Amino acid sequence: MEAIAKHRRSDGLSSLQALLGTVVIAVFVITFVVQAFQIPSESMENTLLIGDYLLVDKLRYGGGGTGDHFMPYQILRRGDIIVFRYPVNPAKHFVKRVIGLPGDRVRLINRQVYVNGIPLREAYVQHTRLEHDVFRDEFPRLNIAAPGMEADWWQQMKKLVEDGQLIVPEGHYFVLGDNRDDSQDSRYWGFVPRENVVGRPLLIYWSMRNFDQEVPASANAGDKLVHFAYAATHLLQITRWDRTFRLIN
Question: Out of 10, 53, 207, 219, which could bridge 240 as a Cys pair, Cβ 3.0 to 4.6 Å?
Answer without folding.
Answer: 207
